[in-house]
Write a structure and sequence with these properties.
By secondary structure, the chain is an all-alpha fold. It has three helices and no strands. The mean pLDDT is 94.
Length: 94
């Protein structure tokens, strides 16, 4: 996990949030890799397996995002404002 400060200068919450954020990145990368493999293979049985695995990664991503939301009040506020909104994307945010 990349760190920009020395580990002994960080408190446990900061370290845990970094772990969760890095894991979130890795889950999204796994989803991307599975999407590429799903698109590339012609074997229908393998497609089913890859799709299942990819969807498991989406669950993992969602669990990590929820952990971060519960532990980062500013992220919680942003997600509540933006997710599931009916507004155009250009109307959201600052």
């Amino acid at each position: 996990m990349p760190m920009y400060e020395t580990e002994n200068s960080l408190d446990e919450k900061t370290k845990d949030m970094s772990r969760a954020r890095q894991s979130l990145i890795e889950e999204m990368q796994a989803i991307m890799f599975y999407d590429e493999r799903l698109d590339a293979t012609k074997d229908s049985v393998l497609k089913d397996v890859i799709k299942h695995n990819r969807d498991d990664e989406k669950e993992h991503f969602s669990l990590l995002l929820e952990y971060l939301r519960r532990n980062d009040p500013e992220l919680d506020r942003e997600l509540k404002e933006i997710l599931f909104s009916k507004k155009e994307l250009k109307e959201l945010g600052d």
